[in-house]
Amino acid sequence: MGLDIHFVRVTHSSRINENKEAILFLHGWPSSFLEYLDVARLLNSSSNTNYDLIIPSLPGYGYSDAPLRPGMNPTQIARIMQNLMQRLGHSSYVVCGGDWGAAIGTSMAQLYPGHVRGLLITMSAVATTWKHYLQLALGHYVNPSILLDYDEQEFLVRRFNAFDFAKILWREGGYFHLQATKPDTIGYALNDSPIGLAAYILEKWSRWSNNEIDIDQSINSGLDRFTLDQLLSNVVLYWTTGTITSSMRLYFEYASQISSGHDDKILKGPLAASVPVAIVNYRNEILYAPRTIVRSKYPNIKLWLYHTTGGHFASMEKPREYARDIEKFLLQL
């Protein structure tokens, strides 16, 4: 018996039987389907649009079932999302995502290049071969110009300053190690305290939306980029569904997938050149890979965009810009 997958569908009901542009939105952690609702409303606000927008909750998140057996890694979720789109009648669709959504969308494009008509991602953290790691080391410790194109240097040169990069890893990387090794331990604690859960989630929304801010010196810690309703709705969703533990297990499953080497061809191999890709970069995104490295993973980049503001949860922070970028990308397909 399979998993029940929750999703929101935004479309013009009067045109339900017409041929529509299907777009699948995939969220990450600690986010939810709520992150894309404003973008969906903007895309479907005109009577001239003809989109079928699908916004699921990932397995183990929100209202979707949590897996009962080990192995629910990004590649397996990619297969589930392909099945969902097939069940909804879409043999061809565009995928948009950040964080885990970017990883899952990338796996979908690798597994099903004949179905994924385009892929738009906002976190292109690619470094999978010894050559990539050597390039990154030279960029970090010798000279950023080794890695960065001229138009990238002003935008992201601070990320390739060795001291700043080390500080970011030191301050922001602890959660990943914890969730990739012992997610259930912290999960039981967070499920026992709504205040603890809110603190754990909102700290990520704060730092990952503006990592240039000193949270010790800021009254709002950067959370003023969102409304109180947006922030608390996401926290309450995790609390009422009790899914913080199952959501964090995705990190453990991914780490197990990496260490096993079973899916190296998918994880480390490039996309088919037939799949068009849009890479949208926001200044305060937590991870970034230079264009010279990204090209090796995504050979058919149709759109490469920079935004001087915005962070990890850009679709909620900057929904108008995000919606416009989708429309720009669709014109390239």
Automatic annotation (TrEMBL):
Signal peptide: none annotated. The keyword Signal does not apply. It is found in: Endoplasmic reticulum membrane; Microsome membrane. Pfam families: Abhydrolase_1. The lineage of its organism: Eukaryota, Metazoa, Spiralia, Gnathifera, Rotifera. It is a single-pass membrane protein. One of its GO terms (cellular component) is endoplasmic reticulum membrane. Its EC number is 3.3.2.9. GO terms for biological process: epoxide metabolic process. The keyword Hydrolase applies. Residues 22-211 form the AB hydrolase-1 domain. One of its GO terms (molecular function) is cis-stilbene-oxide hydrolase activity. Belongs to the peptidase S33 family. It catalyses: 1-(4-methoxyphenyl)-N-methyl-N-[(3-methyloxetan-3-yl)methyl]methanamine + H2O = 2-{[(4-methoxybenzyl)(methyl)amino]methyl}-2-methylpropane-1,3-diol; cis-stilbene oxide + H2O = (1R,2R)-hydrobenzoin. This is Epoxide hydrolase. Keywords: Aromatic hydrocarbons catabolism, Endoplasmic reticulum, Hydrolase, Membrane.
